[in-house]
Amino acid sequence: MTQKPEAEKRSTIVKVERRASEDGKVTVAGYAAVFGEVTSIAGYFDEVIARGAFTTTLASSDVLAYFDHDRGRILGRTASGTLRLAEDEKGLSVEIDLPDTSDGRDVRTLIERGDIRGMSFGFRVTKEEWDETGAVPKRTILAVELREVSIVSEPAYDGTSIAMRSLEEARKERRAHNFTAAERRVSARRAAAEARFRGIV
Fold first, then answer.
1. How does DSSP classify residue 158?
2. How far apart are CA 76 and CA 98, in angstroms?
3. So where does this one cross the membrane (predicted)?
4. Can you list the positions of beta strands (E) in the chain?
5. Domain segments of the chain: what residues?
6. What are phi and psi of 76, to 5 degrees?
7. Which of 65, 113, 120, 130 lies deepest, with the highest CB count within 10 Å?
8. DSSP class of residue 156?
9. DSSP three-state, residue 41
10. What is the mean pLDDT of each run of 10 residues along the chain (201 residues)?
11. pLDDT tens across 101-130, in order?
């Protein structure tokens, strides 16, 4: 049985906007992920999120919005329509209708004061590519299972150790593939030599 990859978190520092409607509803909007931007992950490797990485998961997942990744501080949910997610040319667009709760009011105040610095998302990688031809390994995330999005006060790149394990798995798979290919070449040479020895060819 194949084990599922562990969850990771990534953040982006982009302006989080506050929008108020005539009926008093307050909506915050921003981007939890930006496509094509190369980010250094703790100096170990570079990472980029490919356009379309969220296409499959947005069609099937019920995603929650939190404050600072705290599951006890829910701000919205796609199933209820209070969280809306979409891919556009820039990245993963997020809109959250803030609840009239202490957390909702706190988030609204923090955005108005300029204390909220960005958004983040929790995910599992379902498809990726690694390129080690350069000085630093580069990971391209092609598809994810989106678990949650968060409004965060201190954007940070969490889950580096998990991504490093992913790199090691990719390296092991590549070594196994190269070893198997080498075995096939050796076997083919042995078979050809044996055939020549027996005068078959």
1. B
2. 7
3. none
4. 8-12, 17-20, 26-34, 39-41, 45-49, 64-67, 70-77, 83-87, 91-97, 118-131, 138-152
5. 8-158
6. -175, 170
7. 65
8. -
9. strand
10. 67 80 83 90 87 95 93 96 95 94 92 86 92 90 94 68 63 66 59 61 54
11. 999 999 999 988 888 878 889 999 999 999
Measured in degrees and rounded to the nearest 5, phi and psi for residue 114 equal 85, 15
Which residue type occupies 105?
A: R
User: Cα angle vertex 55, ends 154, 62, to 5°?
Assistant: 65
Using CA atoms, how far residue 53 sits from 34, 44, 49, 83, 190, in Å, is: 11, 22, 7, 19, 45
Two structure tokens written together for 163:
């991504």
DSSP state of 90: S
The C-alpha atoms of residue 61 and residue 151 are separated, in whole angstroms, by 19
Both tokens assigned to 180: 């198997």
What Å distances lie between residue 3 and 107, 124, 126, 168, CA to CA? Answer: 37, 12, 11, 15
Position 132 scores a pLDDT of 87
pLDDT of residue 2: 46
